[in-house]
Design brief:
The complex is a heterodimer.
Chain A (H helix, E strand, L loop, with lengths): L4 H6 L20 H7 L5 E3 L9 H9 L2 E7 L10 H12 L1 H7 L4 E6 L3 H4 L2 H15 L4 E8 L5 H17 L3 E4 L5 H14 L7 E3 L7 H6 L3 E5 L8 H11 L4 E4 L11 H11 L4 H16 L45
Helix pairs in contact in A: 2-12, 4-5, 4-7, 7-8, 11-12, 12-13
Chain B lengths: L2 H14 L2 H11 L3 H14 L9 H10 L10 H11 L6 H14 L2 H10 L10 H8 L4 H8 L4 H5 L2 H13 L16 H16 L18 H12 L3 H14 L2 H7 L3 H8 L21
Classes of the chains: A alpha/beta, B mainly alpha.
């Protein structure tokens, strides 16, 4: 990690709960082992920030069986200074990133929203709220997200409430980001406000759960998302135990991979671990694929025929005689070959 | 823009929608700008996505209003979006340009396709020129197609440089240039020479260019391009030889004419009108794969 202690203090991030990196993140299982365990499975990652990932990740995800993903609008690390950078970011979620994903055989959806951290810049937040309606009705926008609390300030609450109303009006699911700090309280508060606004909990996905929050979320009828993210969020051994304890209903896992030390293959790796620990294929399918589709599919924007048999054929498919993959691009160059043609 | 074209488009839409879809569009088309713009965005949530059917008469009528304008093979969503744009009040230029610009700035791929498809119908064409030339730089295939293929806007408004860039990028992207509106009328010497250079780069890399692109050079044949013709005639790929034969014959340039005299069969086919560029028009291009 290249951040020194002072920088970490001034700019708290996903690393803030780190115990100095002593926790092993990836051990025990090698690629070939897990690849064998999950053979034939397909995965849906309902939370990943591809804008901060590389094309290599897309290729690896595709090879590991990830057929579709949801990219929630979030904080890209660098604070945005004006409305235009929001517009460009939102546009990239429904434009370039969606296109790039399609080139590697993965169906790309997104959720749109003003994230909690940036809700605190109120003058800018006001402007963002004005253009949000032009984004939330777009094709492939499967929810309002990720919204909720970070610092749990009044400004965050204000824009969280406004966006819940927007979700109701647009008939879209809501994807809630629960805070890193004071998580239990933040999670309870998020759910209480959603209920206060009359949202049906089956339309709300509460994300970044842990052992402390899961019971309450499930008991209240919400979907419980779990982020498999080294150091700061869930580890996948813990995740297996959660599924063992609570079963697979209304639980979904994601990678939330972003610009931090994270893993875009978190879902297939967790699926392999679940398989090793004796969790049934049906349960694995629910938490790594089907539940996410059922929850976000309420938007009316997910058509499984777009991806359930893979999008690979698109590489050579033509639309009215035109391929969209040109300029000499190859969807999967032979990376072990010395020759570059 | 004429009211006639609005009506013609509405007629095609009516024939391709259910009453409830049609009602939704009618209501949104007469609403205030913000609601109309939101409807432009939300169209796929309210209309089916099928490809529309257009009668030959309707296609002819649309083309008669705006030469080169065609809605064939469009989806209902694309056509409806274009119609909604024609319903935006254009009387106040500043507001109109601001509204359309906002849609451009916030658009996803299918919306961009609709916006670029609508360019020939929008008021204040000069205002869209930069966006149109910028679309040619797009790496998103459908967006590029919307401006480059079957769209009369570029031929009418692009500068020569922008036009040449459009044609060249169409070739570079392995798309069929015969779908470009105004291809014949906007041929020019610069483009012919750029194409020759481009072909040399391709050949050096062991790649090819689509044979039909040589239709762009016949009016501007010179010794350099005649050299290219020789290269093509000597290749073992028949469509290359055919392209060189047609271009050379059309050029009337003596050294080029002499070249094809060595290929009497080809010469005969071209001279008799049996072999034309139409025979080389194909949508199945794959010039990055080395030919035998």
């Amino acid at each position: 990690m290249c951040l020194n202690h002072n920088e970490t203090t001034q700019n708290p991030s996903h690393f803030e709960d780190s115990d100095d990196g002593n926790t092993p993140a990836h051990t025990d299982i090698t690629w070939s082992e897990y690849n064998e365990l999950i053979k034939g499975m397909r995965f849906f990652d309902p939370h990943i920030h591809m804008v901060s990932r590389t094309t290599d990740d897309y290729q690896a995800m595709y090879q590991a069986g990830i057929v579709a993903l949801i990219e929630p609008a979030f904080w890209v690390g660098q604070p945005r200074t004006g409305l235009s950078s929001f517009k460009d970011y939102y546009s990239s979620l429904v434009g370039w990133e969606r296109f790039r994903s399609s080139q590697f055989g993965i169906k790309h959806y997104c959720t749109m929203g003003l994230n909690s951290r940036e809700a605190n810049n109120e003058p800018l937040a006001e402007q963002v709220m004005e253009i949000l309606p032009l984004y939330i009705y777009k094709e492939g926008v499967v929810g309002i997200g990720e919204i909720g609390f970070d610092d749990q300030t009044p400004a965050e609450e204000k824009y969280y409430r406004l966006q819940l109303e927007l979700a109701k009006k647009a008939n879209l699911p809501v994807q809630i980001h629960t805070p890193h700090r004071d998580k239990k309280k933040g999670t309870e508060r998020s759910m209480a406000i959603a209920l206060e606004h009359g949202l049906d909990p089956s339309w709300v996905i509460v994300d970044h759960n842990n052992e402390e929050t899961v019971k309450s979320v499930l008991d209240k009828g919400f979907w419980a998302g779990f982020t498999i993210y080294p150091f700061t969020k869930m580890g996948n051994e813990r995740m297996v135990k959660v599924v063992e304890q609570y079963g697979p209903e209304r639980i979904m896992i994601n990678s939330a991979a972003d610009w931090g030390i994270s893993d875009p293959l978190a879902i297939p790796k967790t699926a392999a671990l679940m398989k090793m620990r004796g969790i049934t294929n049906e349960s694995i399918k629910l938490v790594t694929y089907q539940n996410a589709i059922d929850a976000f599919g309420k938007s009316g924007q997910i058509d499984v025929t777009d991806f359930e048999d893979g999008m690979e054929s698109d590489h050579s498919a033509k639309f009215h005689g035109n391929s969209i993959l040109r300029g000499g691009q190859q969807p999967a160059p032979a990376k072990n070959s010395l020759l570059i043609q | 823009m004429s009211d006639v074209i609005q009506q013609k488009i509405r007629e095609v839409i009516s024939q391709n929608t259910s009453p409830s879809e049609s009602d939704w569009l009618t209501q949104k088309g007469s609403s205030d700008p913000l609601e109309l713009m939101t409807a432009f965005v939300a169209s796929p949530r309210n209309l089916h996505k099928k490809i529309i059917t257009v009668t030959p008469e309707q296609a002819w009528e649309l083309n008669a209003e705006i030469a080169g304008f065609s809605v064939n093979d469009w989806s209902l969503v694309r056509l409806s979006r274009v119609w909604l744009l024609t319903q935006l009040d254009s009387s106040d230029k500043e507001t109109y340009v601001k509204n359309i610009s906002t849609l451009f700035d916030t658009a996803e791929m299918n919306e961009l396709v609709a916006l670029y498809s609508a360019l020939p119908l929008l008021s204040y064409p000069d205002e869209w020129l930069f966006r149109a030339t910028d679309a040619v730089r797009s790496n998103m295939g459908f967006v590029f197609d919307a401006i480059a293929l079957h769209n009369p806007f570029p031929a009418r408004y692009f500068s020569e440089q922008a036009w040449n860039q459009l044609v060249l990028k169409t070739i570079f992207n392995d798309k069929p240039i015969h779908f470009i509106e105004g291809l014949e009328s906007r041929r020019n010497e610069d483009l012919a020479m750029i194409l020759s250079d481009f072909a040399h780069e391709r050949w050096a890399a062991g790649r090819s260019v689509a044979p039909q692109v040589w239709r762009l050079v016949s009016n501007f044949m010179n010794d350099i391009i005649a050299g290219d013709m020789q290269h093509l005639l000597q290749s073992r790929y028949v469509p290359n030889q055919q392209a060189a034969a047609i271009a050379s014959f059309e050029s009337g340039y003596k050294p080029a004419i002499e070249l094809i005299s060595n290929y009497p069969e080809l010469q005969k086919s071209v001279a008799s009108g049996k072999l034309t560029w139409t025979d080389l028009e194909t949508t199945d291009l794959n010039t990055y794969v080395p030919q035998p």
